[in-house]
C-alpha cells in the first residue's frame, strides 16, 4: 500500500496509474508480432498468415495472397497428376514404361491400374470406358408390343456377306421394325479364331452389312447402334459349333 495525498492506494493500481494499461494480446488472427500467431505462421500487416514470400513455403509450393499453394504442374505422386499421367521429377508427364508408374501399368502414355481406362480400347471386348473405369455394357430392353421377332443372321467363315438364305429373315426384320419406332442394337460376333483386332473388325463389318441391308429396305439408320463384340461371346469348340458364333443378333433399345 502507498498513500497518495492521504489516500491509501494498492501498489498494482498505482503502477497502472503511472504506466498506463498493460498490453493486451489481440484476438486471433489479428497480431502485433509473430508470437501472437500459431506455430508456422507469420504476422503480416497485423494479421496471422501462412507466408510473406515463397521461401516461407514448403518445396513445391509458392506464396500467393499470403497462402502457400502448390505450384502449377508440381506433383509429389501420380495421384497429383490429371489424366493418368506419371509424376516424374515432380512434374506430370506421359509415362514411357511401367517403371514410370507408381501403380499400375503404362498404356499409351497413361498409368492405368486394373479396371482403369482412357478409351474403350483399354477395356475388354464386352466393356466400355465409362468415367475412367472399364464397365460391362448391358444391352437390351423389353420387347415392344409387336407380334414379330428379329431373327439372328448367320455368316460363312471369314465373311461379312449376307447370304441369300438370310435375306428373307432380314426382309421380315424390316417389316417388324415398321410396327414400332423403337431403336435396336445390331450386335456382330465371330468365332474364336483370329486375332482380337481382326475379329472386332470382322464383327463390325457383319453388323454394318446388316444395318445397310435394313436401311436399303427403308428403315431409318438413325435407329441402329452397331456393337462389334468380336469373339467375346464365342462358345464354339470345333468346326460344327463355330458356325453358331458367326452371327449378327438384335436387341431392342
Oligomer: single chain
Number of strand elements: 16
Helix content: 10-25%
Low-pLDDT runs: none
Number of helices: 4
Order of helices and strands: EEHEEEEEEEEEEEHEHEHE
Shape: elongated
Name the structural class.
alpha+beta
Q: Roughly what fraction of the amino acids lie in strands?
A: 15-25%
State the major sheet: 4 strands, mixed
CATH topology of the largest domain, which one? 60s Ribosomal Protein L30, Chain: A
Number of domains: 3
Return Rg in Å.
Answer: 37 Å
The rounded distance between the terminal residues' Cα atoms is 98 Å
Largest beta sheet: strand ordering: 13-16-14-15
Give the CATH H-level superfamily of the largest domain. Answer: OmpA-like domain
Determine the mean pLDDT: 88
Characterization of this structure:
- The chain has 4 helices and 16 strands.
- Helices cover 19% and strands 23% of the residues.
- The strands form 7 sheets. The protein has a 4-stranded mixed beta sheet with strand order 13-16-14-15. A two-stranded antiparallel ribbon has the order 1-2. A two-stranded antiparallel sheet has the order 3-4.
- With 253 residues, it is an alpha+beta fold.
- The chain folds into 3 domains: 2-70, no CATH class; 92-136, no CATH class; 153-252, OmpA-like domain (60s Ribosomal Protein L30, Chain: A, 2-Layer Sandwich).
- The chain starts with a strand and ends with a strand.
Structural descriptors:
alpha+beta, 60s Ribosomal Protein L30, Chain: A, elongated, four-stranded mixed β-sheet, about 250 residues, two-stranded antiparallel ribbon, 3 domains
Short description:
The protein has 253 residues and is an alpha+beta fold. The chain has helices at 11-19, 164-177, 196-216, 239-242, and strands at 2-4, 7-9, 42-44, 47-49, 61-64, 67-70, 86-88, 91-93, 105-107, 110-112, 127-130, 133-136, 153-154, 184-188, 224-228, 247-252.
Amino acid at each position: 500500500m502507498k498513500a497518495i495525498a492521504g489516500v491509501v492506494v494498492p501498489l498494482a493500481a498505482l503502477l497502472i496509474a503511472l504506466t498506463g494499461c498493460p498490453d493486451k494480446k489481440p484476438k486471433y488472427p489479428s497480431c502485433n508480432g509473430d508470437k501472437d500467431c500459431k506455430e508456422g505462421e507469420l504476422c503480416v500487416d497485423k494479421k496471422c498468415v501462412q507466408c510473406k514470400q515463397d521461401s516461407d513455403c514448403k518445396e513445391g509450393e509458392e506464396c500467393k495472397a499470403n497462402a502457400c499453394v502448390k505450384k502449377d504442374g508440381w506433383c509429389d505422386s501420380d495421384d497429383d497428376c490429371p489424366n493418368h499421367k506419371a509424376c516424374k521429377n515432380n512434374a506430370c508427364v506421359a509415362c514411357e514404361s511401367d517403371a514410370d508408374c507408381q501403380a499400375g501399368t503404362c498404356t499409351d502414355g497413361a498409368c492405368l491400374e486394373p479396371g482403369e481406362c482412357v478409351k474403350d480400347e483399354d477395356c475388354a471386348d464386352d466393356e466400355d470406358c465409362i468415367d475412367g473405369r472399364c464397365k460391362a455394357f448391358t444391352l437390351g430392353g423389353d420387347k415392344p408390343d409387336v407380334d414379330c421377332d428379329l431373327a439372328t443372321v448367320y455368316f460363312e467363315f471369314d465373311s461379312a456377306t449376307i447370304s441369300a438364305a438370310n435375306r428373307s429373315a432380314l426382309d421380315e426384320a424390316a417389316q417388324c421394325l415398321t410396327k414400332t419406332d423403337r431403336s435396336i442394337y445390331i450386335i456382330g460376333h465371330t468365332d474364336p479364331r483370329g486375332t482380337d483386332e481382326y475379329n472386332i473388325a470382322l464383327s463390325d463389318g457383319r453388323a454394318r452389312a446388316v444395318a445397310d441391308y435394313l436401311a436399303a429396305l427403308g428403315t431409318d439408320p438413325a435407329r441402329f447402334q452397331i456393337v462389334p463384340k468380336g469373339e467375346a461371346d464365342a462358345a464354339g469348340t470345333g468346326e460344327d459349333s463355330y458356325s453358331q458364333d458367326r452371327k449378327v443378333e438384335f436387341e431392342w433399345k
